[in-house]
Amino acid sequence: MLDRLRHPLAAVAVALLLTVPFIALFVTHGFHLTPAPPGANITPLMAVLVGGAAILGAAFLLAWGAETAEKDVPTAFAIAVLAVLAVAPEYAVDALYAWQAGSGQSGSASLAIANMTGANRILIGIGWSGIALFTIYRAKRSGDEAVEERSGLLADVVTLDREIALEIAFLLAATAFAFFVPLGGTIGIADTLVLVGLYVLYIGIIIRGDVEEPEENVGVPAYFQEYPKVPRIAVVLFLFAFSGVAIYIAVHPFAVGLEELGLQYGIPEFFMIQWLAPLASESPELIVVAYLVNKARSTAGFNALISSKLNQWTLLIGTLAVVYSIAAGHIGGLPIDEKQVAEIWITAAQSFFALAILANFEISAREAVALLVLFASQVIAEFYVIQTVGEPTATNISITILYAYTVVYLVLGAGLFVKRHESVRELFDRTASNAREAVGDTTSQPERAD
């Protein structure tokens, strides 16, 4: 009996069962679990519980699908697919606000940008920092070889696979371009062409990569990787499709439930749309990465985080103008107000600082804490202002706070890039080498450091 419970398929069954309560409510009530239809006994708390359970179960299925897929496709491509599926709900939320803005609904453009910038800052401020700290903590038990112990306060580091140079370089390019986006007064089709073009070019490079020998897996991925090729691919496609759909439809009621609970406790709606809703939509990805780290696969975990940031910072921003234009019935751009200009710049500045940290292919506990503290202190400061100061003074103070943190991020990031200029050179050399290999030119490649 115990052997049956330990069978990999038993774990898959448990993950599937976690999605059943939500699926049952979805079938009976559709997308709108909250607010509940007349006569239904669906509370915000229930929506949060069943939606959260479904996201948890689907996240495990998604992780197992990505690990299994590594046997047949380049690992970077499998991770990229995982990242896109994990953050798909964020695309749906932002697309909704962009559509409403294109249809003429007042204030929706600001909500779309607020939600997008909030999601991106959460991914780094909580995701990158929290996973780095969790990786260092878990290494004491898991023996993760990616973690190096060093003397000094919070000096232990998580070392990254140097093959992640390609993702870091593309993310740096997207970050540099993002500083110029607000200057046009809108997020327009020109921005779409540049940002989506960057992501297409990135995918074009990684999909041409070699299929590496996958890391030795245990449990569910190891079991499925032993299947013959055709059934194995079918399993991967099912895991990707089922988990992607489950996450996509579960995040909305989960986020709405959180928002309604927040309103009950007096949290402003705009604040919840910028922070609580993105936190809900980012949760599948953070669960997947925590799962990978728990298996001492921190390299794959960080690859997923960086890939997610790349597709959010390119595809997510780039698609806003497309959705807006379709809804408006003509080619146009999502308008940017003064507050959202500051939001975009602080988001780009945070990304700049985070990439400076990763420029030497490692992140220390000290650097992770710095990311977390800077993120949390800015959010808390703005929340305090919103709660204690009336409009329009609150908005003016918030903008000042955003600009102040933007300067801090830029100064810290510039200092690190200068200090780590040798690592930056290696990063771009590796990126150029990967690009040449993708187009079949293997001449004059720089020698890679171990």
Can you characterise this structure?
Residues 1-5, 33-39 and 442-450 have low confidence and may be disordered. Helix 3 runs antiparallel to helix 10 (229-264), helix 5 packs parallel to helix 12 and helix 7 runs parallel beside helix 12 (298-328). The protein contains 16 helices and 5 strands. A 3-stranded antiparallel beta sheet has the order 1-2-5. The chain starts with a helix and ends in a 12-residue tail after the last helix. The longest helix has 36 residues, at 229-264. The chain is mainly alpha-helical and 450 residues long. 75% of the residues lie in helices and 3% in strands. The chain has a single domain, classed as A middle domain of Talin 1 (Up-down Bundle), CATH 1.20.1420. It is globular and about 60 Å long. It has helices at residues 2-5, 8-29, 44-69, 75-86, 88-102, 108-142, 165-178, 189-206, 219-225, 229-264, 269-294, 298-328, 338-358, 365-388, 393-419, 421-438, and strands at residues 147-148, 157-159, 186-187, 334-335, 362-364.
Instruction: Average the pLDDT over all residues and give the rounded result.
Output: 82
| CATH 4th-level superfamily | NCX, central ion-binding region
Radius of gyration equals: 22 Å
Find the count of extended strands (DSSP E, 2+ residues).
5
CATH architecture: Up-down Bundle
- Give the termini distance in whole angstroms: 47 Å
What's the CATH class, please? Mainly Alpha
Give a short account of the largest sheet.
3 strands, antiparallel
- State the helical fraction: over 70%
How many H/I helices?
16
Report strand order across the widest sheet.
1-2-5
* Order of SSEs: HHHHHHEEHEHHHHHEHEHHH
Counted up, domains total 1
- General form: globular
pLDDT < 50 stretches: 1-5, 33-39, 442-450
CATH topology call: A middle domain of Talin 1
Q: Classify the beta-strand content into a percent band.
A: under 5%
Structural class designation: mainly alpha
